[in-house]
Amino acid sequence: MMKFLTSLFLGTALLVAPAQAQNQPLRIEITEGVIEPLPFAAPNFVPDSPAAAEYSAQLARVVAADLSGTGLFREIGSDAYISQVSSFEAPVQFADWKAINAQALVTGAVNVSGNQLTVRFRIWDVFSGAELGNGLQFAGTTDGWRRMAHKVADQVYSRITGESGYFDSRVAFVSESGPKNQRRKRLAIMDYDGANVQYLTDSSAIVLAPRFSPTGDRVLYTSYESGTPRIYVLDVGRVQRRVLQSQEGTMSFAPRFSPDGQTVLYSLAQGGNTDLWSMNIGSGQSARLTNAPSIETAPSYSPDGSQIVFESDRSGTPQLYIMPARGGEARRISFGKGRYGTPVWSPRGDYIAFTKQNKGRFHIGVMRTDGSEERLLTASFLDEGPTWAPNGRVIMFTRETQGASGRSALYSVDISGRNLRPVRTPDGGSDPAWSPLQ
């Protein structure tokens, strides 16, 4: 796992008014209304050493792509620039950036010594001429340059929106290849934007439903390599795994970590009945949480670990229910038309994302934890399996196209329903699981 050093630095060659002195600070208010993307410029970072030249443009391009990809920012291309940033310490020519209507400006410098890379950057409110917060510095190895760019973008996003970022994160998913009736599946992990794909299993057995641990170092998933579904826990860094204990004659699937990472919540099918169970990873001790003739599956913890949302057909059709994390009486929260499934609690604790099937269409939606304010974000032949970005503002999911040649792909959408985008993967992809910030 790449480690980075972070430090504050103060510029001495440039005197600006403090950001809090602005009459109208630069800020994007994220609401459910239509947002006009904020125009920004991200010139190539200044190379502080000859070896840094190859990284100066790459860093700026990743930062710009991260911001533009949110739908909240619009990059102004370099062909519109009036002035260039040739020195990180030189005063910014704000009039030149105002003239091209850049409201935010990201400037940076990069130094390479051996395999060590250091990035410095600042964020400017162009129209007030003020720096947004203090400059920051990230240091690491050259092979982690993309991650440092994501960290820079997270800071820009956070300071302008007031929300935490999500770019320095990863996604576990099922990579799919081959024809639809002979689909080969293997577990993979990648940066949130599809870069740096790493395969964690081969395609000899069907794998499903990867789920990150709260610290991002382990992944739970379901595999059919024994002939029946069983749950495995995999150490991402060492790519080592072990199967979780299961009872003879049972099938275990749909696992998810507790917020403290010590417990696994899952479904267990035995004798034609499926209920929710929990297991302490260290001791292997398990406990049954539901005992009903209905199918209980797809459980997900609340961020504080006190409650569980899950899918059950106890009312006759699949609906969403919430109950205490240690079991007990469950209350139904979904009451719209259609069938509900795969609920996932937002890391902010304010929403639950879900899959909905109604009138032959599939949707990704969100609702408040009491079932109110239901809002459908997507609609297609088959959308399913939502997962939350670490900041609770974006959802990634699987979309499958229709027909014998149909394929699965990953998409993301803002919780307001804006900015629906495909997520690039080398082959088809399904079952995404977003990691926490790294």
Structural commentary:
- 9% of the residues lie in helices and 42% in strands.
- The chain starts with a strand and ends with a strand.
- It has three helices and 32 strands.
- The strands form seven sheets. Strands 1, 2, 3, 4, 5, 6, 7 and 8 form an eight-stranded mixed β-sheet that branches.
- It is mainly β and 438 residues long.
Instruction: Give the mean pLDDT.
Output: 90
Number of helices: 3
Query: How many beta strands in the DSSP annotation?
Result: 32
Supply Rg: 24 Å
End-to-end Cα distance: 9 Å
| Assembly context of the chains | single chain
Structural class by SSE content: mainly beta
Strand percent estimate: 35-45%
Shape: globular
**Uncertain runs:** 1-23
Features:
single chain; 438 residues; mainly beta; 4-stranded antiparallel beta sheet; 32 strands; globular
Summarize the structure in short:
With 438 residues, the protein is mostly beta strands. The protein has three helices and 32 strands.
Secondary-structure blueprint:
Blueprint: E1 5-9, E2 38-41, E3 46-47, H1 53-69, E4 73-75, H2 94-99, E5 104-113, E6 116-125, E7 130-131, E8 135-141, H3 145-161, E9 170-177, E10 184-191, E11 198-199, E12 207-212, E13 218-223, E14 230-235, E15 240-243, E16 251-257, E17 263-270, E18 273-280, E19 286-288, E20 296-301, E21 307-312, E22 319-324, E23 331-332, E24 339-345, E25 351-358, E26 361-368, E27 375-376, E28 382-388, E29 394-400, E30 408-414, E31 421-423, E32 428-434
Parallel strand pairs: 2-4, 2-5, 3-5
Antiparallel strand pairs: 1-8, 5-6, 6-7, 6-8, 9-10, 9-32, 10-11, 12-13, 13-14, 14-15, 16-17, 17-18, 18-19, 20-21, 21-22, 22-23, 24-25, 25-26, 26-27, 28-29, 29-30, 30-31
